[in-house]
Amino acid sequence: MNESAEQESSNEDHAVPTARMRSATMCEKCEELDQKIAHVRRLAKAGLDELTLSRFAALIEEYERQKKALHPDN
Known about the structure:
Layout: H1 3-13, H2 19-44, H3 50-70
Helix pairs in contact: 2-3
């Protein structure tokens, strides 16, 4: 590899994240939100009072909204 190719390769390591990299990061965030949603759904199965269940439902809706915000084109 010549010197200019080495510099180019080195510069690529510090480049602005590509769309693919941003997409992968967003998917990681979606996975985290999916885990939170699953956790809240498990808690909701415990047969709690209506107020708590309605708060769980609102929390799930918020997590779903966050996921949609990460992928507005879907």
